[in-house]
Amino acid sequence: MYQLNKVDKKFPGVHALKSVDFTIGRGEIVGLVGENGAGKSTLMKVIYGAYQPDGGTITIGGKTVRFQNPRQAMDHGIGMVFQEQSLITNLTVAENIFLGFEQQFVRWGVIDWKAMNAAARRQLAKVRLDIDPATVTSKLSFAQRQLVELAKVLTLEERIDGDLVILLDEPTSVLAREEVELLFRLVRELTSRASFIFVSHRMDEVLELSDRIYVMKDGAVVDVVAQDAAEVEAIQRKMVGRDIDKEYYREQKQKPYDPSKVLLSFDRVSLEGRYEDISFDLHAGEVLCLVGTEGAGREAILRTVFGLERPTSGRVSVKGAPYARTNAQEAVARGVGYVPRERKVEGIVNGMTVYENMTLSQMKKYSSGGILRIAEERALAEEWIRRLSIKTPDVHKDCGGLSGGNQQKVVLAKWRSGGSDIILLDHPTRGLDIGAKEDVYDMIREMSDAGAGIVLVADTLEEAIGLSHTILVLRDGVARKRFDMAPGDKPSLYDLVHHMI
Amino acid sequence: MATLQSTTTVTTRARPRAAISRDALLKWAPLLVLLVLCAIFTLMEPRFLSIRNFARILIAASPALMVAVGVTFIIIMGSIDLSMEGTVSVCAVAFAFCFLWLGGTLASWAWLAIPFAMLVGGLLGFVNGLIHVRLKIPSFMASLAMGFVGTGLAMVMTGGDRIRIEDELFRSLLTERILGFPLMVYVAGLFLLLGWFIQTRTTLGRNFYAVGGGEDLAVASGLNVARVRVLGYTLAGVFFAVGALLAVGRIGIAETATGNNFMFISITAVVVGGTALWGGIGGVWNTLVGVLIVFVIDNGMVVIGLPGYVQDGVLGILVILAVILSTDRKSISFVK
């Protein structure tokens, strides 16, 4: 019924979808699994019209369609239930359900609220939710909101003729076990009205619910398995399956760390709602990699180290002593450097020059009495441009105009030149091309040779395995397993995935 | 079901080049506008282009320039300061009282009234900044309220009276001329250079740009953003005080009304000069050009004999044009 034929999507530097074929029949539930970055979300965006494919065709009932935006996709019966809930919390349930489609209730220019609420009640009945449609959305539980979203998407049923395809993006991530079961029962019932595409990182749930499962890796569909033939282990192997190129991750350059020198230590640290009871030591020269799915607590741990979150219990010590005040200034003063995931938001200041960005965290060293010594700043920047071969015409270039890889180098230069020796890297290679990635790997090796400790959240599992001395596998905020990664004797991807999901 | 065919996929190629010329346009547009305005007024009335008339423009512009330079720093941070009218009034009145009380002439200890007024300005700015940062009140509301408090305070201090400053030495700001321009123009020039120095050469100036360009990033680089903000408002307060001193020097009177009109003129000047309202872009030279545009229009309209209300309309249109030019609408999805 709904079909993608050889759909291709490219972004600068990334081939996000490689000739993907995808079909879904009437009343079918199709699962979609893959690692972070395998192309699941790009595929979904193509399906619900947020992205336009560069190649290939989309057909519905044999006719070729092309969506300019999600609204057009909706007009063809494709609805999306978002992972981050998209309800507007200060509006009522009914207003949310009919947001953008109020016209049907307008009489002489005013909205007939009674009619709207009655219609909303009919939608809510479809998802067996017995609440007053005039309730303000913020008063609902997360599970109820999820159902309201579903009800909202189901309004398509009345609006269009033809079949419905509903995408569910990680719908269970905020739900308790019994709520999940309720949702699944409901989805199965609703297959009489619509087909579903179900995306989740919880393999057991995908297996339980889906009729067929698409396995994605590196932007391509690597396998399609029917439910009765599906095995968790086989799917996991397909999700990761590729031999690691040891050369690529500079594994031969990995040197043992100095176990006598502890830079950072977590002692049974918890942050409510994010992670629990995490303990580890980071040593000089060690690359410690946090592995887990999105939301497993990796980023929250980094933010705790950087003083942006205050742990609810446990003890964090940096070079032997806890923070006196939990904030980023204190962390920077103690030698912690943070390379966040969103370079554009938190990595570099757009509009400031290369040298201004490099000294941003250490202006005190380049000023006397509040007056900057700009010549020294420039000299520093020139030195690091040479050391990291940053491609920029000169130190005065606006950092926002550099390529992603070079921006990343500027951020790393900022922390290294300031003498930071605990470096937190959150997806440092995301969105970089191969050459730039290799530069980043070299830099990581150099930093650990120089005695810095690195906490890494890697972009892919291969990267994590290739680069790290130690891996901590997290699942739902709990440390499941710790691996020592001696060069040449590293666990396989499959060993890790096994503990992740 | 209808087939939807794409028509808009290939039109985005030419953008990089357009972006470059847009940047250049943004950078030089204000100066261009200023030159075009001067040319038009000169064509319509040759007397416009004379030292005498330029001196007139600069005398009128000097106090506003100081206020505008002060608020420039705040706007670079992405905030706004609307307290200038109140602050200028309080500083002017405080200066006048202190000056008369200490002897009434610059030749005596009364010169101390000048640093005193700047101290008062800085203090008002400091309080303004604290209210904004500590109580987490949006800057426009905190500063607007502080401005009203200032106007009220000035009224209480003077009881509605005007205070005359007749000291010849102080009035030489206006009366003493070098190369045809009175001293106050040079004083304003010096403080403009000071502002430029702060903007480019001090950690504080750099921090303004960092906060305006990316506050999350400033935090993630270990900057004390709250401190930067409070210092920014304090600095702005000092510049408002200098503006107040020049305003008193210009007319020889300190009163509650001394601060009138500074809000509209200074914000207009900053925006017309090309400093972006969401922060991170611009500087004191932009502000100089902006202030000159405002006062050239003011003066030119009078010279060619147009009524004053036309001038307000022209200024309003210019502000809108400036904001349209300097806004990258592609990157902004919502405006509140």
Concise summary:
The complex is a heterodimer of chains A (501) and B (336). With 501 residues, chain A is of the alpha/beta class. In chain A, α9 (232-240) packs across α18.
Run of helices and strands of chain B: HHHHHEHEEHHHHEHHH
- Uncertain runs of chain B are 1-19
Strand content of chain A: 25-35%
Low-confidence region ranges of chain A: none
Describe this structure in words.
- The complex is a heterodimer of chains A (501) and B (336).
- Chain A is an alpha/beta fold and 501 residues long.
- Chain A folds into 3 domains: 2-240, P-loop containing nucleotide triphosphate hydrolases (Rossmann fold); 246-335 and 424-501, Rossmann fold (3-Layer(aba) Sandwich), CATH 3.40.50; 345-420, no CATH class.
- In chain A, 33% of the residues lie in helices and 27% in strands.
- Chain A starts with a strand and ends with a helix.
- Chain B has 336 residues and is an all-alpha fold.
- Chain B has a single domain (63-325), classed as ABC transporter involved in vitamin B12 uptake, BtuC (Orthogonal Bundle).
- Chain B is 71% helix and 2% strand.
- Chain B contains 13 helices and 4 strands.
- Chain B has helices spanning 15-44, 51-76, 84-101, 113-134, 139-158, 168-175, 183-201, 203-213, 215-220, 225-251, 262-272, 284-303, 308-326; strands at residues 163-164, 177-178, 181-182, 253-254.
- In chain B, the strands form 2 sheets. Chain B has a two-stranded antiparallel sheet with strand order 1-4.
- In chain B, helix 2 (51-76) runs antiparallel to helix 10 (225-251) and helix 12 (284-303) packs antiparallel against helix 13 (308-326).
- The longest helix of chain B has 30 residues, at 15-44.
- Residues 1-19 of chain B have low confidence and may be disordered.
- The A-B interface holds A 52, 60-61, 63-68, 72, 76, 162, 306, 308, 328-329, 331-333, 338, 340, 345-352, 356, 360-361, 363-364, 367, 370-372, 374, 414 and B 1, 3-6, 8-9, 201-204, 206-207, 209-210, 213-214, 216-224, 280-281.
